[in-house]
Specification:
The radius of gyration is 20 Å and the shape is globular. It starts with a strand and ends with a helix. The longest helix has 17 residues. It has two domains: about 100 residues, Urease, subunit C, domain 1 (Roll), CATH 2.30.40; about 240 residues, Alpha-Beta Barrel (TIM Barrel), CATH 3.20.20.140. Strands 1, 2, 3, 4, 5, 14, 15, 16 and 17 form a nine-stranded mixed β-sheet that branches. Strands 6-7-8-9-10-11-12-13 form an eight-stranded parallel β-sheet. By secondary structure, it is an alpha/beta fold. About 35% of the residues lie in helices and about 25% in strands. Helix 2 runs antiparallel to helix 13. The structure holds zinc ion (ZN). It comes from Kutzneria chonburiensis.
């Protein structure tokens, strides 16, 4: 039993959070033998990043002027890593996410499932590993790491995509896929369901977005990367207008920050610029509960009794009255405000310091990798 004591719980007010067996057992007034003081801190659900290629962590910032096509043709083919390099890259990416308060990530696999899953487990993050359809049947779900089928999506090969979805369904797993071409979603109309998770969707028509929303499909928008690399205009507002609940993803840190604050803020800025009515605080749902649901993990992303105890304590915002908190966090918070992070009830960052990992050492371990890939 752990009690997070006296924090300002978003949506509740000042309260204690009781954690038992990795789950939230109560929100109210508690005392216990093990207490974590949250006085002056805001208590939030951990962030859920529904689309990231963790393997690219060593190349952080290297793609500031790269288009998607240049990345796919010139950089990605050179990202050939040894097992040790791959393990170190994924571990760095996952720890970087934890440091930013991201407690769940959907990691788009790089094709070496065993090594990548090992690295995810070592990190302590909760993850959905996007596995190749060809080896996903070997996945043995363990601890905090589960699997989804990562399909190349309908644009590359419609037949392969349909086969991937049926493989996933036969194993009871979700399918996650990039969707780039207009008409791709319409072609999949008969197959749509809540177990399908799409990413980007910039070229989707409004009708297609309505199809996704009414079928309960997840849709992840990655506003900074889409803006930087030429994917097209992010569909966040259009998906909301279509009745959908968008999720948010970092995608790649080659030209985006590793936290969800930037994703929320970029979506908000873009929609405000084009006059789409959006309350700032609503973005917080996309980065937590709506993201969790989009990737089939409804047991995280909110602070309620029975939910897994994935929790972030933020400093610097407890002066705000309850109704201004969500918008305040969306508009002004950053990684340096991430004070403490718990995953499944375990403290992974405390007082601003990672408990089990050291980011500078993890970065040093992959220092030569970006140079090698980008040379
Ligand atoms: Zn992607």
């Amino acid at each position: 039993m752990l009690v997070i004591k006296g924090g300002h719980v978003v949506g509740v007010g000042v309260a204690d959070v009781l954690i038992s067996d990795g789950a939230i057992a109560g929100i109210g007034s508690f005392s216990g033998s093990s207490e974590l003081s949250a006085h002056g801190l805001v208590v939030l659900p951990g962030f859920v990043d529904t689309h990231r290629h963790l393997v690219q962590a060593p190349m952080r910032g290297s793609g500031a002027d790269l288009s998607l096509s240049a990345f796919l043709s010139d950089v990605l083919p050179r990202l050939v890593l040894s097992s040790d390099e791959l393990r170190a890259a994924v571990l760095l990416g996952a720890v970087e996410a934890l440091n930013a308060g991201v407690t769940t990530v959907l990691d788009w696999g790089h094709g070496s499932m065993d090594v990548e899953v090992e690295a995810l487990q070592e990190s302590g993050i909760r993850a959905v590993y996007g596995a190749s359809p060809s080896d996903v049947d070997r996945f043995a779900g363990t601890g905090l790491v589960s699997a989804a089928v990562a399909s190349f999506g309908p644009a590359l090969s419609f037949e392969d995509n349909v086969r991937d979805i049926s493989v996933a369904r036969s194993l009871g797993l979700s399918t996650t896929m990039h969707v780039t071409e207009p008409g791709s979603v319409a072609r999949l109309a008969d197959l749509l369901g809540p177990d399908l998770h799409f990413v980007h969707g910039n070229a989707c028509t409004d009708d297609e977005l309505r199809l996704l929303a009414s079928a309960g499909c997840g849709l992840t928008v990655t506003p900074p990367v889409e803006s930087m690399m030429g994917h097209g205009s992010p569909v966040y507002g259009r998906f909301v207008a279509a009745g959908g609940k968008p999720a948010l993803g970092v995608d790649v840190v080659i030209n985006s920050s590793s936290d969800m604050f930037e994703q929320m803020r970029a979506a908000l800025w873009l929609e405000r610029l084009r006059g789409f009515p959006l309350s700032a605080g609503s973005l917080l749902r996309s980065a937590t509960i709506d993201g969790a649901r989009a990737i089939g993990l409804p047991s995280v992303g909110s602070l309620e009794v029975g939910q897994r105890a994935d929790i972030v304590l933020l400093s610097g915002f407890s002066h705000l009255p309850e109704e201004l908190l969500p918008g305040g966090i969306v508009s002004a918070a950053g990684i340096t405000d991430v004070h403490t992070v718990l995953v499944d009830g375990h403290i992974v960052k405390r007082d601003g310091v990672l408990v089990h990992h050291d980011l500078p050492s993890l970065r040093a371990a992959v220092h030569g990798l970006a140079r090698k890939v980008l040379a």
